[in-house]
Amino acid sequence: MKNNPSYFYQFLEPVSEQLAEIASELEKGIYSSPQTMLMHSRTFVEAILQRVMVAEQLSGEDHLKLKDRIDLLESKGLLKKEVLDALHQVRMNGNSAAHETRTFRYSEALLSWEAIYTIIGWYVSKYCPKDVKVPAYQDPEPKKGDETEVSELEARLQSMEALIRSNIQQQKGLTEDFEAAADSENLADTMPGLATVRTIVYKDKSLEIPHFLRDEFLLPQRFKESERFLMMLGAEEEVRIMSELPNNLEGLHEDAEGFSEKDDEVLFEELKHYIEEEIARREVDLANPGKLIFFYNSDYVIVTDQLAKVSLTEEEFDGNPSFFAQLHEDQIERVGQLPSDLVTLTKYDDVDFETVEELFGQLKGK
Fold first, then answer.
1. What is the DSSP letter of 295?
2. pLDDT tens digit string along 286-332?
3. Helices (DSSP H) in the chain: which residue ranges?
4. Among 103, 135, 250, 312, which is most buried by a count of CB atoms within 10 Å?
5. CA 105, CA 37: separation in Å to the nearest integer?
6. Distance between CA 70 and CA 64 in Å, rounded?
């Protein structure tokens, strides 16, 4: 952490530089994104409890939820009441941040920050070398010049947390890779951006919109049955991005002439599929940092350097000659210059979904 010499939990570096780094990012998040800070504070204390379990030689805890870890340690008589209360406060605040659609306050993040101090004090005094000293508690102050974007903060925390968990497994002699928990309590910890920012309803149905899709452009081509409906809504400047959708889709068709209530229902169902597809794509992106990936519907291709250099010509690919000519006019001459979401290629003249699907199949073949 040489590039960040002044942060409260610097004293943790001799114990674990990774824990110290996460604590530093959490400190930044208190004022830049309380919700992000609260969610990842939960994972931070879980990492500490994992270390405690390794030290106490407890078995069978590999896939336990945070609450189960707390209950196990309490049943073994390892937690004082103030530590137990602090753990539950961080856990419950983190759960709220992961599932509630509201604005979280700085004061809520500061309460978790203070609870973390109690947990760290207990951990250091009981499981760390005696020369590690915990300084007196102090509230953090907003730092000028720290303009960390929420998405960047989440990505850094995600990366650090995965590394910590991997290292803990190595300490226990495990060789398998860390598998993210699929349950709702841990999903927001293992993949950044999944905290719900709002809920969209249609009659008795509801959809949770994750943070990373909050201002996503709703590309009409991604909604086969609702493509024309979305195009008309966009033309009327009613709906172009996710945040412009109303909380209730009933009556949305009234904003575009020539549509009916059935179009509202179909759009809702396609939105559900779209969100599921985008979450799956995000998981692929996070698992392959820095790589070019082509998506088509729910399928994808990770582009190798060799494939990226292949020319988009009739000699390399079967298909519509005018399609390649139009790509070349836009200076898209090699595979690596294609857009990540291949469905956008349907914007070209005489290029339909079948044409794009055929190209995608040939890309997979190569």
1. E
2. 788 778 899 998 899 999 889 999 999 888 988 778 899 999 999 99
3. 17-32, 34-55, 66-75, 81-99, 106-127, 150-171, 184-190, 227-235, 261-287, 305-308, 321-329, 353-365
4. 312
5. 11
6. 10
